[in-house]
Q: What sequence folds into this?
């Protein structure tokens, strides 16, 4: 955790508060507070409020690091296994089989999460190139 007096503190317009970070990771805000307290997630304190940069958020994700070209995609909220299964009307076990077959996952401190655009692209390549764009990520932005 860094103090707001740190000269490297980012502009708050480009940071996330714990609620936004929780929404991105699909966890409870209390989980974010615990990760900050335990030093797993770096944050800045501005007054009493914690803020995190996208770089600090992505540092927690075990997966491809975003490039300038892919930053917007990786700012989308991640999906849980259950959310992905529900969105596609399949079972959790099917998602598990797809993970074993190479479905890209972003692990966050032991939690398996999926970027919806990565999942769509993988499904198009592996199963059906005619799948419509946005069929997984619709409504997530």
A:
């Amino acid at each position: 955790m860094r103090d707001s007096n740190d000269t490297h503190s980012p502009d708050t317009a480009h940071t996330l508060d714990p609620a936004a970070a929780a929404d991105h990771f699909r966890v409870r805000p209390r989980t974010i507070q615990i990760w900050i307290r335990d030093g797993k997630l770096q944050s800045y304190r501005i007054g009493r409020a914690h803020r995190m940069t996208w770089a600090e958020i992505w540092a927690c994700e075990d997966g491809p690091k975003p490039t300038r070209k892919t930053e917007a995609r990786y700012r989308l909220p991640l999906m849980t296994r259950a959310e992905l299964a529900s969105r596609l009307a399949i079972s959790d076990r099917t998602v598990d089989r797809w993970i074993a077959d190479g479905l890209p996952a972003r692990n966050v401190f032991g939690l398996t999460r999926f970027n919806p655009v990565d999942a769509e692209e993988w499904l198009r390549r592996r199963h059906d190139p005619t799948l419509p764009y946005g069929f997984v990520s619709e409504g997530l932005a």
User: Anything to note?
Assistant: The chain has two domains: 1-59, 63-141.
